[in-house]
Structures are given as structure tokens and as C-alpha cells.
Amino acid sequence: MELTLDSVLADAVNRLATAAKDRRHPMHTPVVGTADGDLRIMVLREATPDLATLRFHTDLRSPKCGLIGSGAPVSVLAYDPEARIQLRMRGEGRIESQGPIADAAWERATASSRRCYLAEIGPSGLLEAAGSAIPDHLLHRAPTIDETFPGRANFAVLLVEVRSLDWLHLTHEGGIRARFTRTSAAASWQQTWLAP
Predict the structure, then answer these.
(1) What is d(CA 77, CA 41) in angstroms, rounded to the nearest whole number?
(2) What secondary structure does DSSP assign to 91-126, as a single string?
(3) What is the DSSP letter of 50?
(4) Cα–Cα distance between 134 and 141 in angstroms, integer?
(5) pTM of the predicted structure, to 2 decimals
(6) Domains of the chain
(7) CB 19 within 8 A of CB 55
(8) pLDDT (tens digit, 9 = 90+) per residue, 135-180?
(9) For 148, what's the count of Cα atoms within 13 Å in the CB-facing half-sphere?
(10) CB burial string 76-94: b at 16+ within 10 A, e below
């Protein structure tokens, strides 16, 4: 790749689009951070071609859903150790549990992916002993699609509007770094090279 700011941005877009479709891609499960300093690994479900939106699925009962609500800062960190490329993104997150985006995401989800939304106690809820909150009859098998319907009430989508992207290629010569920022997904990127 010819090293230009445009090619670096295209590289980031391509890596994230590929990661959303390929569960074996190293960026398929980035670290997502919220304003309270909490971090968690989440599965990247979609990265739009212009990086306007990253989409993740989450349990509506999760504390992060209450924190993010209809708008709050969210950060995303993805790393490809073989390529030695790190992507740090910041933006505005929002939770959608109703409407066409959440409905379409639920419809595309497989029965085994929907199973976690059938948990009897939501994320961070207290348990009497170590284990899962998945109902016993589903612990060792994937549910049928019909069995997953009650989980829809717990299903939500986390959408992150990416407003800054920091691309870093780690090398033995010191690395290469670029930053891309914008005020909203509709705005043009402002781009610059940075010292690694």
C-alpha cells in the first residue's frame, strides 16, 4: 500500500469491515470503553463503509445500556497483532432496543447468538453460585428460533458514531501514526500524521 492519509483511512475501514464479517479476524472482538472507565470485549457486528457507525449487540439489562442511553462517549480499541496495526476510536454511543435497526439486527442473529438474551438474570446481576444465568434446559444446546423469542425483550444494539480514529502501525523503526477527526458522521475527516 502506498502510504498516504487516504490509504491509511481506507486500510482502517477495510480492516473493520472485514472484522465484522469474519469471526476469526483479530479485530472481530475489540475492547469497548464507556465514560465510567469500564472496559469490555464485544463482538463487532458491522462497520459502515464510511465508518459512520460501528454496531455491537448487547443485553438491554446491562449497566452500560443505562450509562450510554441515547448518547454518551464510547471508545473502541482494536488490534491486529500479525499486522501490528492498532485502531483507537472515539465517538458518540447510543442504545437502540426498539425500531428498525434493533429489529433487523435481531432478525439477522442466529439462534445460538440469541441464546444469551434468554438469561434469567441480566449482566452484573448477583448469582448464588458460579455459573451462567442461561436456563438449565438451554445450557448444553442451541435453542430453536421459536425458543429465542422471549429474549427479544432483552436485546439491544449499541451504535457508535465514530468521530475520531487513531491508526498506528507498530514497527521496529518507530512506527507510523495518523489521526482522523470529524465533528459528526456527516462531516469530512480532518486528517494528520502524528508522532507514534
Answers:
(1) 9
(2) EEEEEE-SSHHHHHHHHHS-HHHHGGGG-SS-TT--
(3) T
(4) 11
(5) 0.95
(6) 5-164 (2.30.110.10)
(7) no
(8) 999 989 999 999 999 999 999 999 999 999 999 999 999 999 999 9
(9) 19
(10) bbbbeeeeebbbbbbbbbb
